[in-house]
């Protein structure tokens, strides 16, 4: 009975751990957060965003907010009309990236968008475009082996 529970637990850990470990929360703008005077193109240029990752917008409200817009709204700095796209205003907004493609965000306060407080990113599908190199695969496999050995050792110590 105990061994069935152990096998189930180890299976869940081995299956779920890679998914949990791969998702990343990105604080938009890093230490500067969501503010005027930040170059969001430069901030985003070396990052790879994937489905399952999340953007975290940290700012002071008022004056700042976050609107998800389309490419036209992004280029023209125009927020959506109506109640279909209300602004995010908590000052600590987390947006999970659920689909691949381009995503656009602006601050609609005063002239903040026109002065550069806007972000465009491209979200990649969760599957990598090419398999990792053999060296990287070896490191990943070794890490899982060490983790699995630690879990087995822990449960053996508890069972004894």
From TrEMBL:
Signal peptide segment: 1-23
KW rRNA-binding (keyword) present: no
Membrane-topology annotation of the record: Single-pass type I membrane protein
PROSITE patterns according to UniProt: PHYTOCYANIN
One CC-aspect GO term: plasma membrane
Record's subcellular location: Membrane
Matches recorded under Pfam families: Cu_bind_like (PF02298)
Domain Phytocyanin as annotated: residue spans: 24-125
Record SUPFAM superfamilies: Cupredoxins
Single Gene Ontology BP annotation: response to symbiotic fungus
Any GO MF annotation of the entry: electron transfer activity
Ranges that cross the membrane: 139-159
Coiled-coil segments on the chain, per record: none
UniProt keyword annotations, A-Z: Copper, Disulfide bond, Electron transport, Glycoprotein, Membrane, Metal-binding, Signal, Transmembrane, Transmembrane helix, Transport
Name of the protein: Phytocyanin domain-containing protein
Species per Swiss-Prot/TrEMBL record: Malus domestica
């Amino acid at each position: 009975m105990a061994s069935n529970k152990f096998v189930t637990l180890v299976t869940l850990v081995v299956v779920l751990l890679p998914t949990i470990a791969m998702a990343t929360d990105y604080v938009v703008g890093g230490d500067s957060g969501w503010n005027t005077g930040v170059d969001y193109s430069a901030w985003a240029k070396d990052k790879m965003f994937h489905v399952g990752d999340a953007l975290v917008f940290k700012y002071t409200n008022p004056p700042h907010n976050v609107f998800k817009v389309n490419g036209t709204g992004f280029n023209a700095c125009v927020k959506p009309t109506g109640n279909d796209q209300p602004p995010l205003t908590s000052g600590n907004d987390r947006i999970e990236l659920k689909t691949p493609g381009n995503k656009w965000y602006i601050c609609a306060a005063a002239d903040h968008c026109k002065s550069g407080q806007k972000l465009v990113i491209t979200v990649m599908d969760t599957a990598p475009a090419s398999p990792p190199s053999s060296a990287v695969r070896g490191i990943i496999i070794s890490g899982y082996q060490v983790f699995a050995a630690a879990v087995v050792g822990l449960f053996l110590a508890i069972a004894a």
